[in-house]
Amino acid sequence: MNGSDRPEPIEEPDGPGPGSDPGPAAASESAERRPAAPRIPLPRSSIEDTGHPVPDPPPEAIIWEAPPPEPLVLEHRVLKSLLGAWALAACSAAEATAVEEHLGGCGPCAEEALRLRDAVGLLHPEESLDLDPGLRTRVLQSCLGRRPPRIPVPEWAVPYDAESARLDALLRDIGDSEWHAPVRLRWFEQDGQVSRKTTVAGIIAHLLAVDGLVGLALGLEDPLGPDTPGPQHPAHRTEAYWHASHFPPTRAVRGPWREQAHEIVRTVSFAGDGSGRLPVPYGTAPPSGHGDDDTAAPGQKIELPLRDAMVDRAFECWIHAGDIAEAVHYPYEPPAPRHLHHMIDLAVRMLPGTLADRRRSGLATPSRGLVAAGAPGRSLRLEIEGLGGGEWFIPLDSPAAVGSAEREVAHVALDGVEFCRLAAGHVSPVEAAAGQDGDREAIRDVLFAAASLSRM
Amino acid sequence: MPKDAPRRWDRRMQQRLAHGEAAALGELYDRFASLVHSLAHRVLGDECGADRITREVFAHVWENPDAYDPRQGPLRSWIATLTHQRAVRRLRQTESAALALSGEGSTEELERKVRRASAAARADYIVTAMPTPLRAALELAYFQRRDYRQTAADLGVTEDEDRRRLRLGLQLLSTANDTADPSASPATGPPGHGTAL
After folding, report:
1. Nearest-CA distance from B43 to chain A in Å?
2. The domain A148-333: what is its CATH number?
3. Which class for B141: exposed (0-12), middle (13-18), buried (19 or more C-beta within 10 A)?
């Protein structure tokens, strides 16, 4: 293959690839017909074959056809150093001629020239093949099936692991400038949607800052720095991170975010399944930006058990990855059905409490009577369609009551992804495409409660 | 120091895998999946085959973390070698089966095809593992069709230095064409996988 066994390697160039170079026969023919022309065909396979845009021809391409320039006399050292540039057709026509003349009389250089020209045929544009995002799960599962792990990732942490890997793969594919593409953080407060302008990098900074709450609960370093006072509300942490630097976040935020995500998954794995009950403080509810009443009273402590916090972070990661993908015009699929189911289930479990909060703030209709804790109460049947869906009964009058099929007063049917978008504050409860029948007030209250699960 | 840091990562990763830490396997995938998949795809030219090789390679590493010897080179090149060997073996298998079935073509053609695919994948790896200055010079000259004087100006180096980089880059790349049968070679791998650099 390297031509060392050929007596006259240069006279019989063996095109390295399927390029458009004339074949050996054509080359020697043309050399015979036009002895003044270069004896070696253009030494590169053509970029036209790659399907990539063809750049403008270099000036040399035109000069090439012109009469040979004045002969150039170069010393051996220089000629040898030109071999790479010559093989790439990246030297002047005069230099190319000088090199080619030299090759006729210098065996070692001729041999190297052929070798380097063959190497040029191996260059081709990097194919940016998008890895199938589902491949990760399949590969990991097949590995773990063959050798069960001694330290598994707890089941409730798997969605977070998968979603952060998916977002990271999206980030790997986007260009420098896209990191500064504008994105709106959208959520729902009281009775309407609110938003906050940021960039792709700003979103990753947001995820870094809020994931940090889980990290803090696990004893990891705070990405906001060691002097940050106690657990704060996600919105405060995000604003603090954004304001800590005079410059807007850049793609440099990807590394710390990814590292923290890996570290969180690793730490919960060692802590084991039982650590799922550990409390993760989400700080205190911020004072409402819009006036006197908020769903959680300002100063009220918010807390989630670790297993739920991890699902919450997976959910946020997916929703924001979707925001980013939309901003940079990339497709982005919903999570795997099993993971989606965890997310829907968490949101549904939080609904009765949120409903009660809204009721206390006068944002939902008063309850229709007392229900003893643990007893079946008036319920809304929430039917989530699609993969990852299911059916839930949501107690309407008290978070302590038990949802009950016998006491169903209303029914809402919703696609799983649509429900998540509602719970993320990305669709208004009025516009959510939901099939509904039964008690109108109950339906309205539950849909609004779902939307107000969202936050910055 | 900067040379030691990745090697430390390699050793630690090996220990974590040996320890049976599932989270480490996830991190390993996140770091190397696109390398493994693209090399396998370059050899086999099809998505399903590349998926399959990816599954096999990670399963092999997960089941045999001790087979990696950090003294022999970086984890990255060990994984590239594994991928390359398996993909080439797979290509030879499928091509032989096709040949036996149809009777069209010859064993020589088959070997040529396997050799070409193998060299293409090795070249890909060499380019990704090449020192950045060499890669930058090659990319400008080949893909942007800049001549070496322009490339030198673009990169802020002398023309001498740029000629040197183009030549050295191609010299490294040309080792991909050296005919080592990767499926027959020992675990240290074919030339070009770490050994050349």
Report:
1. 13
2. 1.20.120.450
3. buried
Name the percent of chain A lying above pLDDT 90.
Answer: 55
Distances in Å between the alpha carbon of A3 and those of A6, A13, A79, B120, B122?
5, 9, 20, 18, 19
| Three-state SS at B156 | coil
Please state, in angstroms and rounded to a whole number, the distance separating the CA atoms of residues A27 and A298.
82
State how far the Cα of A46 lies from the Cα of A100, in Å rounded to an integer: 20
> Residue range B81-102: average pLDDT?
91
Angle between helices A254-271 and B22-44 (to 10 degrees): 130
Contact flag B174-A118 (C-beta cutoff 8 Å)? yes
Residues 16-55 of A with CB under 8 A from B: 16, 44, 47, 52, 55
ipTM of the complex, rounded to two decimals: 0.82
Chain A residues touching residue B38 (CB < 8 angstroms):
127, 129
pTM over 0.90: no
**B21 interface with A at CB cutoff 8 Å:** yes
Q: Identify whether B83 is part of a domain.
A: yes
Q: What is the rounded distance in angstroms from the CA atom of residue A119 to the CA atom of residue A288?
A: 65
Q: Residue with structure tokens 């550990």?
A: A278
Domain-wise residue ranges, chain A: 24-120, 148-333, 340-456
In a domain, B82, yes or no: yes
